[in-house]
Amino acid sequence: MHRRRFLAALSTGSLASVAGCSDRRLEFGESSADGPPRPRVDGRWLLDPDGNPIVLRGVSAVDPVWGVEQTESRGKDYWETLELATDASAGWHARVLRIPIEPRSIRTVGLDVVVEEYLDRAVEFAAEKGVYALVDYHAIERYDTPSIDRRLRAFWNRVAPRYADESHVLYELFSAPSEPASGGIEAWRTWRDHASPWVSRIRTHAPDTPVVVGSPAWSSMTAYAAEEPFEHDEVLYSAHIYPSWDPRSWEPAFGTPAFDVPVFVTEWGYANVETARRADHVVGTTEEWGEPFREWVDAHENVHWCATTFDTSRQPAMFDDDWAPLDGNDYMGALVKDWLAERRDDHQPGEPTAIPTDEGSPPAPPSSINILQVNETGATAWWSTVRDSDGDDALQYRVTVDGRDPEILRGVEQSTELRDLEPGRSYEVSVTAVDKRGLESEPTVATFRTLERGDPEAMIPRTDTPPTIDGNDAEWPVGDTHPVNLFLWGDRAAEIAAGWRAAWDENALYVLVDVIDRDWGDGRPKTTVDLYLDLDNSGEKTYDGENDLQFLVERGTERVDGGSHSLLPSEGTVAGTVETDDGWRTELAIPWTEYGIQPIVGHRFGMDVHVIIGDRSAKIGWFDESDEAWENPGALATVELDE
Description:
By secondary structure, the protein is of the alpha/beta class. 22% of the residues lie in helices and 27% in strands. It contains 14 helices and 33 strands. Strands 4-5-6-8-10-11-12-13 form an eight-stranded parallel β-barrel, surrounded by four helices. Strands 21, 23, 26, 27, 28, 31, 32 and 33 form an eight-stranded mixed beta sheet that branches. 45% of the residues are buried.
C-alpha cells in the first residue's frame, strides 16, 4: 500500500477503509485486474472488441473525498457503498460506476491526493469487480471562463494519461456546463468551440478512451449532437434528465439524437420529499415520472444511464439512513435496483448480440388523422396507433403543420394541440411514425380550416403602472367595468351584484372584482369570487392541466384556491381583499410566464367571472349562462389584450 494512502486512511478513522486497501501499488497500465474490455464507438452504438453492442447501466456515487469525510453521517464507509452497488448477492447489478470529482475536493486536498488516494482506488475497485468506471470532472458552472479552462486542462493532463491503458475506464469531460446557453444551435456551436480543445487534450493522452461530452444548460442540449457532432473519435454525448423535463420533451431532446449518436444519461433521478437539500428540479414520483422514464429509456436500446445518487443524503437519494433502498411512489431506490436486476444480462460485453440495422421496410403510416376542437388559432390532431414489424408501438410520431419543423412525440402519444394558427385559414397536417431503427413511415395527411376571427367579448387595456394587489382600487388602471349580472341558479331573493375590470402588462394579468351586497338583514353574507381562465384560448372541453384555471377567492381572505379541475395557483399568483361601503372587493395578479404565456397585443384567451352567494344559496356570472365553466373551458368568453 502507498504510504500516503495508508496515512490518509488512518486519518479518516475508518478501519474499513484501511482493511479494504490492496497491498499492491497502483501502477496503472500494469494492473493485475484487467477489468472489462475496452469499448469503442461505432455510429450510435458502443461495441466490445468483437463487435457486440454494450449498454452501460449503473449508478452515480458521491465524490470519494466527500464520501470518506462523511462516513459517519452517511452511515457507511465510501468503499463499502461501491461494494454494495456491484454486489449481486445483495441484488445490485451496476455495470458502470460514475465517480464524480468535484472542484471543491481538489481545492481541499490537492489534485495529487485526489488522484493517488481516491481515484486510483476507485478505478482499481471497478476493475476488480469487472465493471466500468466513468471518471467525471463534476463541475456545474459557466464554460467560458479562464478559470474553468485552466482547471479542466490541469485535471485531464493529470488524469487522462494515468488511466489511458485501463480498458474499463471512460471519461466524462465536464459534468454540467451552464452558460452561455441561449440561441439554440448557436449555443451548441459556441460550446463545441470551447470544448473541442479539451477533448483534443484528452485524446493526446488517451487516444482510445471513450469520452462522454456534455452540453450547455446543464447537459440538456443533446439534440444538437446529432446535427453537428464533435470531430473526435470515441465520443458519447451526455444528458441530464430530471422531473423538470416534461416527458413530452424526452423524445425530441434526447431520443432523436440517439438514432445517430451514442447518448449516455449520466444523471437522472427523482424524489418527492421535503428536505433541506431538496432541489425543485428533482421533484417527481415513481408513477408519474420514474416508470415512464424507465419505459422510455428501454425503448431506445442504445441509451446508457447512471442513476443518481447512490447515497443516503445527497438528493435525490436512493437509500434511507440504514442503507435500505427507498421504496414507494416518492422514491427511486427500489426502482433503480429492480431495473438493474431486470437488465443485468442484456448487452453484456462478450455476449453475442445482433445490432439492429436500418435495413428493411419502414413502418406503415397512421391509418387516419382526426382533427378535433378547431378554434380560431388552434385545433387538436388525433391519429391511429402504428406498430412496427415486431408488434411494438412506434417509437416516435412526427407531426408537421404546413411545412413547419415537426413536433416530435413519444410513441405513447396519439394526439397533440396545433397552436399559433391564423383565423379563417386552411392548414395541412401530416403525421409519420418512426420505429426503433429510426426508419420513418410515409405521411398521413389531413386538412382543416380554422374558425373566422370574431369580435372579442371584452378588450383588456395595457397598463404602464401595475396596481398594488391590496383590494384598493385607488390606483387601478382605467378600464371598462363589465357587469356580473347573469342569474345562474339558486334563491333569487339572495340578490347580489358584481362587476369586473382587468388590465395587463408583460408580467401579469390583473383582475379586480367588486361585489355589492343587497339588504340581507342579518349581516354581510359569505361570498366567493370564481375567476375562470383559458390562457392560451385552446377552447378545450376539459381542463388541460397547463393553463386552464379556476381560481377562488373567499370574502375576508387573501388566499387563492384552485378549483376541482384546475391547476393549483402558482407561487406568483396573489390576491388582496378589502371590505367596502356596499360590499367587498378582491384583486388578483396572475403571472403569465408561470403558465407558459408570452403576452402581446392581440393575444386572446378565455375568461369568465362568477360569484357564489352564501353557502351555495345562489350564483351569478358574467358570460357563461350554462354554468359549465367550472368543468368546461370551452364555455368561456373570448377576451383580447389591447394597447
